[in-house]
Design brief:
This protein is an alpha+beta fold and 126 residues long. It has a single domain, classed as RutC-like (60s Ribosomal Protein L30, Chain: A), CATH 3.30.1330. The chain is built from two helices and six strands. The chain has a six-stranded mixed sheet with strand order 1-2-3-6-4-5, with helices on one face. Belongs to the RutC family. It comes from Corallibacter vietnamensis. Pfam families: Ribonuc_L-PSP (PF01042).
Length: 126
């Protein structure tokens, strides 16, 4: 049985999907981009601010499922320019304990929704 997770503390989906789906004790999140949940505006000041907004959006989705970043077991990071990797990684890493950080892949892509620079999705387990 699946439970749909949606919260107004993260941006509303911009297509036919939900912010996350909980199946048994496993949460599968949709990718988050740097949309500010209250204004609907993109946060594109710089790559660090953009990544922080993505992670704050993800934090809200995890919270809506009664989870935290400690529950995350796998992340996928999609970036439009691998030259931004170290700055993205710096912000991303601040949300995790390095000793218990999740598995991850980082992939450079040609384009992302709304032409943002970074999108992150996660899998978490209670």
């Amino acid at each position: 049985m699946k439970t749909i997770i949606n919260t107004p503390e993260a941006p509303a989906p911009i297509g036919p999907y939900n912010q996350a789906v909980l199946v048994n004790n496993t949460l599968y999140t949709s990718g988050q981009i740097a949309l500010h949940p209250e204004t609907g505006e993109l946060v594109l000041d710089d790559i660090k601010a953009e990544t922080k907004q993505v992670m704050e959006n993800m934090k809200a989705v995890l919270k809506a499922a009664d989870m935290t970043f400690e529950n995350v077991i796998k992340t996928s990071i999609f970036i439009s320019d691998m030259n931004n990797f170290s700055l993205i990684n710096e912000v991303y890493g601040s949300y995790f304990n390095e000793e218990t950080a999740p598995a991850r892949e980082t992939v450079e892509v040609a384009n992302l929704p709304k032409f943002v620079n970074v999108e992150i999705s996660m899998i978490a387990v209670k």
